Known about the structure:
Elements: H1 3-33, H2 41-76, H3 92-97, H4 105-118
Helix pairs in contact: 1-2
Residues 83, 85-86, 88, 103-104, 106-107 line the site of zinc ion.
Amino acid sequence: MEDRELALLKELLTNWLGELLSHAGDTVMDLRSYDDYSPDPLDQAAFDAERSFNLRIRDRERVLINKIKRSLEDIENEEYGICEDCGREIAFERLKARPVARRCIRCKTKQEKLEKVMGI
Length: 120
Ligand SMILES: [Zn+2]
């Protein structure tokens, strides 16, 4: 991978992480406001549903944040963009579309087929 391509991907990842982290702060504030819950059971159910929805999103965000951090670490260690399975370079176009990808398209497709066959 060329240096300017790597620089672009690093910028993508850094901006993405910044966005997620500022957004994660919002969710925490939202959750805090649920402390003053309503005594009405119907309202309370709606609150609970929204709360668990927010928690699920926050969970997913946390996973994503960790993936992005891992990719940024890989860049620092000059291990970024190498397929976990076959050790080949992951195509720049793929990384641009999905900067946290850890497998090349061939291994990813193979894995997805396998998952389909196994019914995962
Ligand atoms: Zn591969």
